[in-house]
């Protein structure tokens, strides 16, 4: 997306850290709260997309029904599902916040992959196994796919489905700013 940024296109990444610390700070991980979390994210994403901002929503959405709800809110034509598929053992190795350890000790209830189920996406536009691909390879694959899909990036929303690990882990590890994250795509 470096080219798109140079063309004057705006990009915003929404992730668990910036959403759960603000607008969704009153939500937990119950089934009802997960639905509301994804609903709010989809509504925020739609607002960004409607104003022409390329929006990447990097969230764990544990069920196909939740992802379908998000697609309906955003609009099917503006919804692109990316499945970041990472084995649980790898997620636990990368767990810089200690959330998996807390979930294993029972300190966090309804934690996806530990004490709550996850349904793999039925038909993702792209699947990335980050246990086999480096960050650079994942970004390159995503960029190539954007070109292949020939989408108008001014109205694109990528709702990234993450299994047990968030893309924001990579971003946090690399300490990239929002602008650098958008430029790196």
Could you walk me through the main structural features you see in this protein, from its secondary elements to its overall organization?
The protein has 185 residues and is α/β, with parallel strands linked by helices. 45% of the residues lie in helices and 14% in strands. The protein has a five-stranded parallel sheet, with helices on both faces. The longest helix has 20 residues, at 31-50.
Please indicate the percent range of residues in DSSP E strands (runs of 2 or more).
Answer: 5-15%
- What is the overall shape? globular
Count the E strands. 5
Helical content stands at 40-55%
Please tally the helical runs, counting DSSP H or I stretches of 4 or more residues.
Answer: 9
Strand neighbour order, sheet with most strands: 1-2-5-3-4
State the end-to-end distance. Answer: 5 Å
**Multimerization status:** single chain
Order of helices and strands: HEHHEHEHHEHEHH
Mean pLDDT: 76
Largest sheet: 5 strands, parallel
Gyration radius (Cα, Å) is 16 Å
Give the low-confidence spans. Answer: 1-5, 150-183
Structural class determined from secondary elements: alpha/beta
